[in-house]
């Protein structure tokens, strides 16, 4: 019966806020994938010493020149600042952590990634044979915001996570 209790979303005008934990428990983005629509916001909560870089499906662990990069963890005030991006299309977005061999070891995730064809598992599998991850020179495509700034942005909507922290 508990399974029937769904989290609430504030989606009407402001878009949903999705939260992704980056390396909270090992080399994973949690959730690994999410579904979002234009107007939504994705908040990456970074844990030491991870980052998030947007890539391309065809070249895992290499950055997308037009994509986002959180900058290094050292710029986040020990994770207090979250990296916030705007979702601007329904197209699939693939991303990875460029620290050391994290991407090669499976630290990848995505937004609106298909469940057949160019899946997150296929991206992850291809990442395993990459020699070196690419890290952009500086933060781009998003903002580092503290918790109150994030709350103000998203109309105080909550993520889909069932566990409050
Ligand atoms: C995301 O949208 C907000 C609100 O419109 C805007 O202030 C911010 O600059 C946008 N961020 C990016 C990276 O475009
Ligand atoms: C859109 C909205 O209601 N934003 C509010 C979110 O919460 C902060 C802090 O309480 C308010 O200042 C915002 O107005
Ligand atoms: Cu990492």
What does this structure look like?
This protein is mainly beta and 165 residues long. Helix content is 9%, strand content 25%. The chain is built from two helices and ten strands. It has helices at 120-127, 147-153, and strands spanning 17-22, 29-30, 33-34, 41-46, 53-56, 59-63, 82-86, 93-96, 108-111, 143-145. The strands form two sheets. Strands 2-1-4-7-10 form a five-stranded mixed sheet. Strands 3-9-8-5-6 form a five-stranded mixed sheet. A hairpin with a 2-residue loop joins β5 (53-56) and β6 (59-63). The longest helix is centred in the C-terminal third of the chain and has 8 residues, at 120-127. It starts with 16 loop residues before the first strand and ends in a 12-residue tail after the last helix. Mean pLDDT is 89; it is low at 159-165. Residues 86, 141-143 line the site of one 2-acetamido-2-deoxy-beta-D-glucopyranose (NAG).
